[in-house]
Amino acid sequence: MILLKDPDLVHATSYRAFLAAIWFYMTPQAPKPSIHDVASGFFVPTQSDLENHLVFGFGFSTNIINGGYECGQGSETEKSKQRINAFKEFLEYFGLPEEDEESMGCKKQPTG
After folding, report:
1. Which of 9, 33, 45, 64 has the fewest CB neighbours in a 10 Å radius?
2. Could you report how far apart the first and last alpha carbons of the chain are, in Å?
3. Which residues pair with 32 in a beta bridge?
4. In whole angstroms, what is the distance from residue 10 CA to residue 52 CA?
5. Residue of 76, 73, 37 lying closest to 55 (CA atoms)
6. What is the pLDDT of residues 3-48, one digit of tens each?
7. Smallest Cα–Cα separation from 20: which of 42, 38, 4, 40?
8. 22 and 47 part of one domain
9. For residue 108, how many other CB atoms are within 10 A of its CB?
10. How open is the CA angle 112-67-4, to the nearest 5 degrees?
11. Both 19 and 46 in a single domain?
């Protein structure tokens, strides 16, 4: 409750900032699953999810984190394009397999 009353305390120590990041990563943001569930493959999309392009991929993670700021706008925002390019560079740098281009974006995904 202390952090709800004074959210600035989250960044007052690196320990709290780290715990807040882990909490956000692991906690579903209703109606969306947690980023962990999407990234680890635990998320199993329903037929409705599939119809709304809510599938495993980098784009869905972006939607969970930034929702309406970057997603559901019919085309990728500049921020989203930059995020996708950075993700591609990380994949290449670490020698990881490429992700399907369509699943990297979130332009068609509902945000709420």
Report:
1. 9
2. 26
3. 29
4. 34
5. 37
6. 889 999 999 999 999 999 999 999 998 889 999 999 898 999 999 8
7. 4
8. no
9. 16
10. 85
11. no
Query: Residue 24: which domain range?
Result: 1-30
C-alpha to C-alpha distance for 80 and 1, rounded to whole angstroms = 33
CATH code of the domain in which 53 resides: 1.10.530.10
Instruction: State pLDDT tens for residues 51-60.
Output: 888 888 899 9
Instruction: Please report where in the chains the tokens 């991929």 appear, as a residue.
Output: 57
Q: Write out the two tokens for 10.
A: 């989250």
Token pair for 28: 């579903």
Q: Which amino acid would we find at residue 25?
A: Y
Distance of CA 20 to the CA centre of its chain: 15
